[in-house]
């Protein structure tokens, strides 16, 4: 078994790495229609939440909740969609998507609805900075290192 964590190549291609919590890497999906973030537990070769050790399961829920509260404060969404799907990318990851009644896919899921609309550099920085400013000190931003 490989003990080194590596981000799945599809996640690396589709996302920007923003930083990390004690357990999870935080990614921003390069789809500007929605504030769409992904938590990836930095544990190798896991595909399901129940495969995490008990302490890591609790930590994942804590980090997901911290992220969700920050998303509510910053993006004022009508609904947060939080899901661990993994049909395309088997590596364990949790999507956190701020949804609005007026967004392009509402009320349907966002997966596969449209070709992604990439962020401009300025828009990406604005979204990333707004969110990371709302996160606690346990989050380490890669931008600020």
Set out the fold topology.
Layout: H1 9-14, E1 15-20, E2 24-29, E3 36-41, H2 54-75, E4 79-83, E5 94-99, H3 121-133, E6 140-141
Instruction: Assign the CATH architecture.
Output: 2-Layer Sandwich
Question: How would you characterize the largest beta sheet?
Answer: 6 strands, antiparallel
User: What's the assembly state of these chains?
Assistant: single chain
Q: What are the secondary-structure elements, in order, as H or E?
A: HEEEHEEHE
Query: Helical region count?
Result: 3
Low-confidence stretches: none
Main-sheet strand order equals: 4-5-3-2-1-6
Query: What portion of residues is helical?
Result: 25-40%
Reported by name, the CATH topology is HIT family, subunit A
Termini Cα gap: 31 Å
CATH class: Alpha Beta
User: Helices and strands: which structural class?
Assistant: alpha+beta
Short description:
With 145 residues, the protein is of the alpha+beta class. It contains 3 helices and 6 strands; from the N terminus they run αβββαββαβ.
What does this structure look like?
The chain contains three helices and six strands; from the N terminus they run αβββαββαβ. The chain has 145 residues and is α+β, with helices and mostly antiparallel strands. The chain has one domain: HIT family, subunit A. The longest helix has 22 residues, at 54-75. The protein is globular, with a radius of gyration of 15 Å. The model has no long low-confidence stretch (mean pLDDT 95).
């Amino acid at each position: 078994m490989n003990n080194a964590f590596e981000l799945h190549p599809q996640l690396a291609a589709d996302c920007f790495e923003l930083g990390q919590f004690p357990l999870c890497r935080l990614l921003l999906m390069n789809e500007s229609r929605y504030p769409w973030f992904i938590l990836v537990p930095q544990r190798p070769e896991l595909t399901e939440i129940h495969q995490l050790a008990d302490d890591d399961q609790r930590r994942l829920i804590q980090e997901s909740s911290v992220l969700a509260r920050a998303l509510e404060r910053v993006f004022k969404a009508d609904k947060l969609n939080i899901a661990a799907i993994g049909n395309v990318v088997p590596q364990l990851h949790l999507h956190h998507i701020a949804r609005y009644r007026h967004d392009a896919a509402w009320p349907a899921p966002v997966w596969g609805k449209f070709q992604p609309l990439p962020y401009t550099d300025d828009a990406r920085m604005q979204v990333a900075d707004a969110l990371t400013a709302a996160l606690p000190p346990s989050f380490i931003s890669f931008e600020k290192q």
